[in-house]
Amino acid sequence: MTALGLVGAAAVTWLLRLLPVVVLPASRLPAAARRLLPSVGPAVLGSLVVGCVLGGAPGTRPVFVVAAAATAFVAWRTRSPLVTTVVGLGLVGLLQQL
């Protein structure tokens, strides 16, 4: 019974993700909406990061806020995903040892 529920949940989730793309493809959207589509991914990612860093679970340590701010600065200056990742992970590791 559990496997059937899992398959059913997966099917419903897949259908809910597929349906908007099939019913309303990007080519049928107004021009203003199409211009905004490339910004959706970064906006969602940004909201997830900010939500986790600033509005996370009670007891969120300031280490993550400091590391996130420094990582954002490095990302802005270098525009390199590799450097940004190394600096962010290094800062979190270093600041947690303090």
Overall description:
Helix content is 82%, strand content 0%. The chain is mainly alpha-helical. Helix 3 (62-78) packs antiparallel against helix 4 (81-97). The longest helix has 24 residues, at 31-54. The chain is flat, with a radius of gyration of 20 Å.
Question: What is shown here, in short?
Answer:
82% of the residues lie in helices and 0% in strands.
How far do the termini sit from each other? Answer: 50 Å
Helix content range: over 70%
Q: H/E order of the elements?
A: HHHH
- Overall pLDDT score: 87
Gross morphology: flat
Radius of gyration: 20 Å
Strand content: under 5%
The secondary-structure class comes to: mainly alpha
The parts where pLDDT drops under 50 for at least 5 residues are: none
DSSP E strands, number: 0
**Sheet of most strands:** none
What count of helical segments does DSSP give? Answer: 4
Feature tags:
flat, 82% helix, mainly alpha, single chain, 98 residues
